[in-house]
Design a protein that fits this description.
The protein has 145 residues and is mainly beta. The protein has a domain at 24-117: Deoxyuridine 5'-Triphosphate Nucleotidohydrolase, Chain A (Distorted Sandwich). The chain contains one helix and eleven strands. It has one helix at residues 65-71; strands spanning 5-8, 25-28, 35-37, 42-46, 49-52, 57-62, 73-75, 80-82, 91-96, 102-104, 109-117. The longest helix is centred in the middle third of the chain and has 7 residues, at 65-71.
Length: 145
């Protein structure tokens, strides 16, 4: 478990897990006026949340499957990453991929946030790589379905 400092300038409750085994916490829109997204339009939706992550952690911002399936609403930068040294307001880049207008209401659950540990990579520059069964095959090369 990671302890994370948070400032909540919204009028909504803190993000929380909906079930005991949920990986993500729902983020709510914090917009005083509704935001109308026409088809293929995108907007940065404020949340009113500011966090201080411990070093070695990130917050991943991901779409909500219900909004995607039912309304065609996704995130342009998915998953978005919030780095441990970012202190600004969490904003969610929402896109309307449907053929109908979509209105983001204040307090609406618009995305989910997953807190994850990450490693810092150290590059070892070499002249060759070890062989593998897959080799250089990519973009569907490992299956026939």
């Amino acid at each position: 478990m990671a302890r994370i400092k948070i400032i909540n300038k919204s009028s909504h409750p803190l993000p929380s897990y909906q079930t005991s085994q949920s990986a993500g916490m729902d983020l709510r829109a914090n917009n005083p006026e509704p935001i109308v997204l026409k088809p293929l339009m995108r907007a940065i939706v404020p949340t009113g949340l500011f966090i201080e992550l411990p070093e070695g952690y990130e917050a991943q911002i991901r779409p909500r499957s219900g909004l995607a399936a039912k309304k065609g609403i996704g995130l342009v930068n998915s998953p978005g990453t919030i780095d441990a040294d970012y202190r600004g307001e969490i904003g969610v880049i929402v896109v309307n991929l449907s053929n109908e207008d979509f209105t983001v209401e204040n307090g609406e659950r618009i995305a989910q946030m997953v807190i994850a540990k990450h490693e810092v990579a150290i590059w070892d520059e070499v002249e060759s790589l070890n062989e593998s069964d897959r080799g250089a095959g990519g973009f569907g090369s490992t299956g026939t379905a």
